[in-house]
Design goal:
Layout (H helix, E strand, L loop, with lengths): L1 H29 L8 H11 L4 H23 L8 H39 L2 H7 L4 H38 L5 H10 L3 H27 L4 H32 L2
């Protein structure tokens, strides 16, 4: 009976967390459509999430494109199909690697920062102070971060796509001896609008997940430094796992036949 009761406790805890997260997410998203909208907070988070994430996203993208060209060349040269490398690189980056890697990088940088910041505010009772001043904490703290992440992630992914393709182009033409004009022609010729659009949709979804995971874990953090650390870790893990799961689901939605 003790074993059965432990299973029941875990099940009830899981349902409680699931219900709490759904209500929290719904409140944050609904807050977008009703006044007041704290535009100053939105602007500040746009800069923090977008501009300050550019270096890590760009660095990740350029070396991903470079490595992808090298690995593709090793495999395709065995079948004398080196001409297909530009197509493989551009489709891999725009459809999958750009959105996923940018999402994971931003989750590690921004999601953790959001969780730590809000958790610290909770520990120091600043969230309670907002409620005392008749300010909705979710609308003031969470909704601007959700808006910022949903807007900036597609922009970051679009930049990552360009930088990643450029990284592959540089390695292919300067190291592997590809003809520059032919490489660019093959890259552009086989790239379709849906390839880029699907990646941008994924980025918006990932941005929503990163913001909600970071803010929820921070908002529900335990007391003390240990609670702040646990919230930060949980935010990154949850966001990363959901990014990988939703990446498959969105790919299935766009490209399944």
């Amino acid at each position: 009976m003790e074993y059965v009761s432990s299973i029941g406790r875990y099940a009830l805890n899981f349902l409680a967390i699931l219900g709490s997260s759904v209500i929290f997410s719904f409140s944050a998203i609904v807050g977008i459509f009703f006044a007041p909208l704290y535009l100053k907070e939105v602007k500040n988070n746009l800069i923090v999430v977008g501009f300050f994430s550019l270096p890590v996203v760009g660095l990740t993208a350029i070396f991903t494109g470079a490595v992808l060209v090298l690995q593709s060349y090793v495999g395709f040269s065995r079948f004398s199909a080196e001409g297909s490398i530009p197509t493989v690189v551009v489709l891999s980056i725009t459809r999958e690697l750009g959105p996923v890697l940018a999402g994971l990088m931003v989750a590690g940088r921004v999601g953790a920062a959001m969780a730590a910041e809000i958790a610290t505010m909770k520990v120091t009772e600043q969230i309670d102070a907002l409620s005392t001043l008749a300010v909705n904490p979710i609308k003031y703290l969470v909704t601007p971060r959700v808006i910022a992440c949903v807007i900036t992630l597609p922009c970051l992914v679009l930049i990552a796509d360009i930088i990643g393709i450029m990284g592959g182009y540089i390695v292919a033409t300067e190291k592997l001896g590809f003809n520059k004009a032919i490489y660019l022609k093959n890259t552009i010729h086989y790239l379709e609008f849906m390839d880029v659009f699907s990646g941008l949709v994924k980025a918006a979804v990932f941005g929503l997940i990163i913001a909600l995971a970071g803010c929820y874990n921070g908002y529900k953090a335990g007391k003390g430094a240990e609670g702040v650390g646990a919230a930060t870790t949980n935010a990154v893990v949850v966001a990363s796992v959901f990014i990988l799961i939703l990446n498959y689901l969105t790919t299935e939605m766009f490209f399944s036949k």
